[in-house]
Structure formats: C-alpha cells, structure tokens
Amino acid sequence: MTIQPTHQTAYAADQSLQKIKDKGTIVMATSPDYPPYEFEVNHDGKDHIVGMDVDIMKKVAKDLGVKLVIKSMSFDSVLVAVETGKADVAMSGINPTPARRQSVDFSEIYYNGGQSFLIDKTDAAKYKTQANLANKTIGAQTGTLQYNLAKQKIPGATVKGMDKSTDLVLALKTHKIDALGIETPSAEAYVKNDPDLAMIKSSYPLNKNETGSAMAFKKGSDSLVTAVNKSINEIKAKGLVNNYLADAGKYMKVNTVNTSMWHYWSYFAKGIEYTLIISAISVVIGVLLGTLLALMRFSKSKIIHAIAVAYIEFVRGTPLMVQVLFVYFGIGIIVNLPALLSGIIAVSLNSGAYVAEIIRGGINSVAKGQTEASASLGLNKTDTMRFVVLPQALKNIWPALGNEFVSLIKESSIVSIIGVTDLIYQLNIVRADTYRGVMPVFVAMIIYFIITFILTRILNHYEGKMKHAK
C-alpha cells in the first residue's frame, strides 16, 4: 500500500514556509503596470496597487495567517528580487517557462488567459489574423514569453522589446510597431479603455503549463510552494478568479472616469519629491566623495593614487543602471537595503567619480605660481590646497559642476527600475492607469525642464558672483 505524504512531511523539507510565518509577512514583488493583473488606482486621493494578482495573493496570505506586503519594481527585476531574497514571491502575470524554472520555483498555474495582439484600430482591416503579421514589426516586453513567441513563431517578423507595456502601447499608437504581443486579459483591458486600439487572438500552438500565469519563489522553497498551491487549488475550485477579474474591471473604470493630468497631480508631486531627495543627497555625497578622490589622485602614495584611479575608471566605465541593480540586488544579498537608500547610494557613488575628474581638472588649471607663492608665505601643503588652490579651482570648474548637478537630476530617473517612486516611476504608473501614452510624458518633460531651469538660474547667479568677487 502506498502511503501518501502528509503536509507535515512536505513542510519538513525546508524552512521557507516557517520563515514566512515567523516574520508574519509575505513580500510580493510585482510590476503594477499590467492591468488587469496588477495596476495602481487613485481612490479617495490615495494610491493602491490592485488587480487579480493582488487579490489572489491576499487570499494566499490570509490562508498562511500572515500580512501581505507589496514591493513594486520593473518587470525585469521581479524574479531577481525573489532570487536575492528581496521578496518572498514574484507575481506579475509571469509565465513559468523552462528557462525561468532553472532560476526559480513556480507554483501551479493559477490562470490561463491566452495570448493576443493589440493593433491600431485603423489597421483592423489589414491585420485580421496572426498570419497577417508575417514580416511585420512586433512589439513585446523584453524577457517575456510574448517576445520569444513572436521571434520563433511569426515568419520574418522584426521583434522590438521594451521594458514597459505602456511604452509599447505608445509605440503602437505612434506606428513604431505594427502589433503588440500581450496576454489576452491585458489586451481586453486596453481595448475596453482605449477606443484607438483593437485586438486579434494569437494562433500560437501553446503549452498551457508554460503559458499560464504562476507565482515564482526562490529555489528550494518546497514547503512554501506546497502551501501556496493548496490556496490556488481552492481558488480554482471555487471559481474565485472570475470574481477577482470582475473586481479589477471595476477598479479600471475608477481610473478612467477622470484621466486628466490634474487628477493625478499627487502622483507627479510624489515623483518630484523623491527625485529631489535623491538628487539633493547625491549631490552632497558626490561632491564630498569626488573631492576626496581628486585629492587621492594627487597623493604621492602609489597605493592611494591607484585606488582612486581604479575606482574612477571602473565607475565611469559601467552603466549607472547596472550600478543601481548591483547595489540593490548584489549588496542586498549581504545587507537588505531599502530601494530608496540603494538608489541614493548608487547615484552618489556614480556622481563622485565624475565630480572627481572635474575637481582634478580644476586643480590642474590653477597656475603653479600660486602654489609657489603660498610656499614663500610659509603656508603648508594642506593650507595651500584649502585656502589658495581649491577656491580658485572652484571658480574655474563651477560651470562643469553645474552641468553635473543638472545631469544628476535627470540621470536619477534610473532608480525607477528598482521601484523607487521617482518622477519616471510615477509617469509610467499614470500612463498605465489612464491609458494615455503621450500626455503623462509631456507633463513629466515639463516638470523636469522647470526643475533644471530653476537650478540653472541659481547656478548662473552664483557663477556671476564668483566672477565679480575679488
């Protein structure tokens, strides 16, 4: 007689479930720009992440007896968040493909909505079936099943990948792509809320075990996956997914009642707040670090000089986006840093390398005679640098430093990829919620211009005072 394993023996395999229960929370990583799965809604003046996935996860958390905590970030970061321990579960309409199964564990499929294409409504007569998309330009989110399917299954297609579905919809509406590969529920959501769009069903030969949506967990989370699957089976048996989809539809109607940018002023205000916080702190740290690195480069110690050169060259030789991801996910394996702090650290460390070279150039621009004159007056090297060289260097490099400060405000937008709610992050949320592709971009562009214009005027004012100073 075969003895069926009990839940207790399954849970004994690892401590993933017990850890969740001990801390009393389950952290869900998601990208809330994919209605009806997950999206943000502006309700009673407050932001809420809602959708089918959120409702399912609330049910799971309730069954486990813990509280649900949601971490929002870009889609291409949600699986990394699980792998590095930033989140306990990733849930964002994720398809459990064989490639993904090598990195994470998956629950059972909780929903299978199928695949479709969004098209511009004016092209409805031209693109009636998937066969009509041969040799056309197809858009899809980078790293998704839809991207790979379009590459493999549509003859002669040119596939363009982007990180955000909102960017892809804008590309579709501006005729940069001919069609957008997307899951059927999301396609239906866009069509219902945007009269300029239409959809056609795909004819992909699909494996339902790979194309449905599932939750992702860190490798070896057998006990947690077993417990979650129990909730999923109950959700399926009671037909709760349809209820969750209906609730998501109601929330989407709330978003589209008023799609004016003024209605979303609080989103942009919050984005401005975080952008200015990151920029202000990073400027201070960047200047201090840059000054230290510049002085280290002038050191007679070969070791100190080499450390400064190596740091500056390495930071300037790697993209800021990679540095942000490394600080948040890489260092996060050792120390669990919040997204905002990780963003500030990464931007500050990056700025310091560029400021160092600006200051070094300024120091070199000061005539050697100034140093010699200081020595003749009895000033030591420290006082000479502090009272003679650096003040003159500052006058010479002020325009370059000003450009770095202005650039920092714009470059700090990269932190949105790890879920920091800066201006770019909020811009994408507004675009997803309102189904308006261009206007939120225009508003953000104007806001950035106003911020940088004011900063430039302030910097020019002090530059003028320096020129007239004796």
Automatic annotation (TrEMBL):
Membrane topology annotation: Multi-pass membrane protein
Record flagged with keyword Zinc-finger: no
Regions that span the bilayer: 274-295, 325-347, 437-460
InterPro entries registered for this protein in UniProt: AA_ABC_transptr_permease_3TM, ArtM/GltK/GlnP/TcyL/YhdX-like, MetI-like, MetI-like_sf, Solute-binding_3/MltF_N
GO cellular component: ATP-binding cassette (ABC) transporter complex
Cellular compartment(s): Cell membrane
GO terms classed as biological process: amino acid transport
Keywords: Amino-acid transport, Cell membrane, Membrane, Transmembrane, Transmembrane helix, Transport
Residues of the ABC transmembrane type-1 domain: 272-459
Superkingdom, taxonomy of origin: Bacteria
GO MF: transmembrane transporter activity
Pfam family, one: SBP_bac_3
Sequence similarity: Belongs to the binding-protein-dependent transport system permease family. HisMQ subfamily.
PANTHER family: GLUTAMINE TRANSPORT SYSTEM PERMEASE PROTEIN GLNP, MEMBRANE COMPONENT OF AMINO ACID ABC TRANSPORTER
Name of the protein: Polar amino acid ABC transporter inner membrane subunit
